[in-house]
Amino acid sequence: MKSLTKFALMTGYFLLLGIVGQAFAQPMVVGTPSFIDPQNPEFYVCQRVNMYYDCTPEAYELGDFIPVTFRMEDGSEQKVRVPAVVKVTCLNGLCLDEGDNYHGEIDYLEETPMHIPQGYYVYQPNRQVKPSVWRWGHGPLGGQFPALQTVDPIEHKSLGDLWCSLQEDVCAYQGEEYTRAQLPEVAPFADVNSESGDDFMCQFESCYNDDGEFIGLNPFYVDYQH
Question: Would you say the pTM of this structure is higher than 0.85?
Fold first, then answer.
């Protein structure tokens, strides 16, 4: 059987998730997207359908995408959309997707198309059993496809009220008046990596959550960077 280096295996493993150029950065998945839910079955047995093997549960549809947010080592977050169903082709025992990313192996030398669910790899030890797909981190090739590590989403909680005058250099925070330059001494900066996100927005001095509550000073506001 054709062999692949560990670098090739792991590079493909992260590239298939859209994490380009950071194969060994070990990004953390924010929250628990459906394809790595620990309640998912450990494996599915594949069924022959016309000219290909279908290894997907009913909830997975070809053409559907799953949004995923990765938190990188520097604290930044990268949002990608991954296909719910991955089309792979197995040839000479090796299963690759259209980008030549490795997805497991089967005991067939001839070309064998397969549809597999995101978060699973292909394995068939011999022709006496049907091919199956195993959840990452489980089964005979679990060491080559480790389970992705998860981290809780950052909660953007209210920190009280902040008001700043548009005409004067005066702000009110928790009942006291401050200049803009004084605000970092009494109020924390929002834990954000940009001025807008799925559940927050920063404008001028402040950042707010979806409910319009103050969640911290805007770290990108120019007056705070002197």
Answer: no
